[in-house]
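lol ok so funny story. i was supposed to be doing the assay writeup but got distracted and ended up predicting the structure for this chain instead. priorities right. anyway since i did it might as well share w the group, maybe its usefull for someone
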Amino acid sequence: MTQDERRAVLEATSHHIAIGLDYLPAVARRLHQRRDIGAEFDFLTWFEFAPADGDKFENLVGRLRETEERSFVIREVDLRLER
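and the output, tada:
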């Protein structure tokens, strides 16, 4: 898929950015994308939230998993770290 096609799915079809904005400032998110790292993962999404906002995070992730973009995910790894 070309970069423009990927962006169209991300923004126009899945509304990925708009969904994320619904949860600010409780859940902060950064998306890192690289297609040339030589690994099976081409992007990493980093979320940060306070323990009290865990329910908001779970809701956000649930909504993101219902988007068209999710149909392109082959493998997901969910790591949770706590300070």
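Strands lie at 27-33, 43-49. DSSP finds three helices and two strands in the chain.
back to the writeup now i swear
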